[in-house]
User: Fold these one by one.
Assistant:
Number 1:
Amino acid sequence: MAADLTNQEADSPRLHDLVTDNVVHSKFGSSRRNSFLPNDSFELLFTRDRIKKELSGASDELIDFVHAHATRTFATVLITFPPELKLDLTSIMESFRRYRFDDSFLPIDGEDLRSPSHRCEKHATALNVFRDDKVLSGSWNISKFLNFQWMFLVPTFPLPTNSRILNSSCVLPFTAFGECSFESNDSAMKFKAKLRVDHQTILSRENESLEMPVVLKVLRSPSGWTNPPDSERPGLESAWYKATAYGEYSGPDFPAEKSSDGAHEPRMIGSFSIDKEYWIITREK
């Protein structure tokens, strides 16, 4: 059960333990690492006061840097190095500040670290933090950082048009997934799912529920593939872009609907592509 985060500022457990107590599990893609910290919990946990308490002896400059620019980097470091290791997190985060590595550089992958020169000078310089012996010395620690970063990089829909093709390691905020339905001539397979309400900005919250029912549609090629051979991929990708070309809110195939108070609410919540499949999220009717 998730811990109550609202009244624990003064005498809270270690931040590491609060994070692990409040992660939830994605049901999308069983083969992926599926734990993530929801947006609501993240905002309540990573306050300036909690960061200051965790980073013993840190300067105000470092606290400000972490709170304003590197909370997700700090969260990843926190899980990579649990309290029992008794490492100096203040020194580690000071190194991130010194190299000017902040959340804008996340996510990173092994290729970034193997060949930083292929990135821009600013990016390559920031990545030098991973070569600093005071930070993530050893390939095992770097591997853990690369894995744990995804707990804190879960998308919020709708995504910007140029950010909808996701890394295959991305954790998606669907807490239930199943009940597939489609006909042989359908252009999409449909799945009933539940989406964390704090990972979408289209619909207002109507109650205290943390989840909302949605329909996930994965497009199919004319031959019935959701992950088609290369010869059919351009057509499927084009159909996906066309279906969402009118924005993440609504389009001719996803018209707005009237809510109980007469206001028009869009049916489409967002779209994304992962593992060469093309998905659309809509409200459940």
Note: The two ends are 30 Å apart (CA to CA).
Number 2:
Amino acid sequence: MVGQSLKNDLAHLEVHAHQNAISPLSLLTSAVVKNQLHRTPVEIHVVRTKLFYARPQCLPKSNQIIIGLPEKHILNRIHPSYRRSQKVEPSQYVDPDPREQQQNGRHLSKYVFPRQYGLKNPFTASTSKKEAFKSLDYLDRETEIKGFSTSACDWLMPPSKPARQQARVSVSDALKRRELLEEFIFWYFDSFVSSLLKTNFYITETSAFRNRVLYFRHDDWAAMCAPLIERLSCGTFLKMSDAEANEVLRQRRLGFSFVRLLPKDTGVRPIVNLARRKATQRLGQPSELSINQILQATFQILTYEKNNQPARLGASVFGPDDFYSKLKSFKTRLPRKSDGALPHLYFVKIDVQACFDTIEQSKLLNILRELISEDAYMRQKYGQVQMATGYVKRTYVAKALPDGMSALPITYMWFAEWTM
């Protein structure tokens, strides 16, 4: 349907181009806004993380899950696939209106080939540092298009027979055909394949397999998570009315967060994303601070007390470096055999079931109150410049100190001499 609409457009353009002695496909570029930053296919990424944690699509005012493309997809808006069509007798069948089909095809082509209509698209968008998160695992356009040939796409060929028989085409026609092919491939993966994946599967990473992505059918994922959701809603979390929740949110800045479930070896694990920022409803205003950003000062104070009172931590370790130092100290205290060899060591791995879920909040708060040693703290923020492997490395440091105490590092000024 889109190909037929493009063929009709090219037929009109070919007549106009023959009269003006110019390339027909090059006329399409007149709809594109000039003076824009053009990006090559290799610079455009399909971010796989956009597929993660998708919720199932349901029919309006029902719990019936939609299998296939989402309801608001352009293909479903033109011809909904989730509606059951009534059976029509062959004698009563009426052919679709050709004019309506052409209008639908032209409308769909604006989604598939937005660059040809001067619409917003990834090929002419300006590059910004605040782009969407770029994952290391992405599909670059150049690799995908390398194996395609524009001559193999019938819808990219002009509709007239003499034009199809030409062995060579002009440079402008070849570039325009490649341009259309690039747009179609991007739309196919970014809007068609990704929409099908999100509506049919719950896609997530896992704690059991590093750097692997798992795909669960939405109904299977709901059945697997149902026992934990029931336990969380009945035991771990406390159900509140809307009035109670709004009153709590009014009295504090922390707001609320969302819980998602992460697959593990046996069952799933609840994960709370405290780094998610709440978007404001008013246009033009920045998003509110996340819970992690609000608690950043508290975290810096606890970090200072952790470094100042290491004996209060007991056997706790915070990373491989702490583990190595404790293991090295343990090794020096081991009794040696007569030949100087170390005795046989046995290591046991244990896991505390529902460890964080069963921590008493009141006991934890009492421990934190005992850990705080100062009445007031001061936060320091500064930049640090140092030489690392022949390059200047700049880092930003934020820490908490007792009020009135200054511990700024000694600053060295480096002078670089430039020669022309």
Note: The chain is about 35% helix and 10% strand.
Number 3:
Amino acid sequence: GGTLLYYDLDSPSPEIEGRMLIDYYQRDWTVWAMDLAIDPTAAQLQFDLALELTYRDHYSVDDPASRRITIWRVDVDDNDELDAQLTCSFDAFHTSPRVSPISLQGESLLRASRDPSGMPMYIVHKWKGLGDGLVSHSLLLPQGKYLPQKGVRLLPDGRIVSIFLDRVELHGAPNVPWEKGSPISRDMVRVPPQWVFKYTAPGSQLQLSVSRLTYYPKSNAAVFSLHNGKSLFAFRIFTDKESSPEVTTTLFKQLEDGEYIGLGTSHAIRNKPGRKEAVLMSFSDQSPQVSELLSFAGIINNTTDKDTDNCISTVAEEAITIMGSYPME
């Protein structure tokens, strides 16, 4: 749809109603994709929100119609409600996939798309700091025929994380200037990834679950996590570019059909329809481990592997611990 609502989960009311934040429905737009970037330096909640829009009658991944990108600044107003102000908008060309095709980071927006021949391409739009209404565009053509099925993530240093069903790839920052809508030269070289981490793709009845990417300036690292149905991988990518990414691996009992794990950057919730409890797990500090909850969560053990050929370093410094179980009414 073309309407964005938000919900105040701290409200004392037993019935929490959605409040309007942005409404494009009356303008015949619908939201194709969205991403947000929280300002960690702000004293109160503030974040930038990027929306990729398409006309309601062009709501198809194969439609070549141009898209519209809008970027909003969202903060808390004097009435303790969220308020959104439009800060930038521009046209985006070519189609994009359905799952996480955009990633907002600082002054830049990454968008995964396809060139006119159907091959994948990554475009970074620098939308801030260039003057009123000015946007610059940089292009990278990755190797391979397919876009990442689980989306892309933009790092603060401009590098790109691509998440496929069976691997994670890390590309360097795009450095080829591009004018939107201009033809793409057939002579442009397709760029191989700098780093690859491979895993087994999930079975046909299971979904690959991926968390948001969060950047921690003090440790100069961006982190995210994913699970493939039997293992959970916590990624730490350092922005100094000299250190290899680290991956913490935790094995699980095989997920059953219909079971899922919802992921944050430092925690996960495992549940199954019909089950009366969900388990909250954390990757962070050591905590008392309860054997019943360990069994219920299906955790087997942590592993430490190293693949020097692919520059893969797997560490197990932060074991997953069970923080508690929560009744599901």
Note: DSSP finds one helix and 27 strands in the chain.
